[in-house]
Amino acid sequence: KNEVEQSPQNLTAQEGEFITINCSYSVGISALHWLQQHPGGGIVSLFMLSSGKKKHGRLIATINIQEKHSSLHITASHPRDSAVYICARSNRDDKIIFGKGTRLHILP
Amino acid sequence: EPEVTQTPSHQVTQMGQEVILHCVPISNHLYFYWYRQILGQKVEFLVSFYNNEISEKSEIFDDQFSVERPDGSNFTLKIRSTKLEDSAMYFCASSEGPYNEQFFGPGTRLTVL
Q1: Using CB atoms, which residue from B45, B99, B103 is nearest to A45?
Q2: Residues in chain B with pLDDT < 70?
Q3: Residue A47, exposed/middle/buried by CB under 10 A (0-12, 13-18, 19+)?
Q4: How far apart are CA A79 and CA A108, in angstroms?
Q5: How confident is the model at residue A2, as a pLDDT?
Q6: How many Å apart are CA B75 and CA B91, to the nearest integer?
Q7: With an 8 Å Cβ cutoff, are A45 and B98 in contact?
Q8: Shortest CB distance from A43 goes to which of B50, B104, B109?
């Protein structure tokens, strides 16, 4: 069983739509990460959070520690947001356990 | 803006050969990591490195793998005798501290023939 589960696996939406990607994890964490992987393969860290909510531009990440659940939201989605979004968790050790990713495709 | 760099971008090797993948972490970072991603699969942790020694490693990181910080800037991953299943994208990352945001390099695509 994967320790980090994401849904949906694939998501296609129209430009401008509000996007939500969900992440559940099975053990306690020190931090939850949201990362973006572009078609070329490069990985960019979007958020690292351990409680509450963080916002950066059109991206919002929330986490509910009690429910072991996090969401990534994209407002006013744009075709350039098309990428794989990866949820990952870290604990008291310094390694990150990754989810399988959500492939997002925004249509113009 | 400082960034993690990796060379080469693509490495092709024959099965059984040794390869060394190179990374230059961000200069004031103290923690270094290697991850791999087999095509179509999720990213997997290999090893973390701090203060010139391995701090954590996964079960993937067996005796054929080793890491080294040969000088003040480079961080290398050596695979001693490559196998077909070692074909993957290898990502290096670095962070200021163990619980800080990690910055990833662009990756090295390793193809073992």
Answers
A1: B103
A2: none
A3: buried
A4: 6
A5: 59
A6: 12
A7: no
A8: B104
Which distant-in-sequence residues (6+ apart) come within 8 Å of B95 by Cβ?
B29, B30, B31, B33, B101, B102, B103
Residue A92 pLDDT exceeds 90: no
- Cβ neighbours of A97 in B, within 8 Å: 45
Q: Please give the pLDDT value at position B75.
A: 96
- Compute the mean pLDDT over every residue in chain B, rounded to the nearest whole number: 94
Tell me the nearest-neighbour CA distance from B39 into chain A, angstroms: 10
| Rounded Cα–Cα distance for residues A30 and A91 (Å) | 5
Residues of chain B with C-beta less than 8 angstroms from the C-beta of A100: 41-42
Q: With contact defined as beta carbons under 8 Å apart, do A97 and A88 qualify?
A: yes
Question: Does B22 lie at the interface with A, CB-CB under 8 angstroms?
Answer: no
DSSP B23-90: EE--TT--EEEEEEE-TTS-EEEEEEEETTEEEEE-TT--TTEEEE--SSS-EEEEESS--GGG-EEE
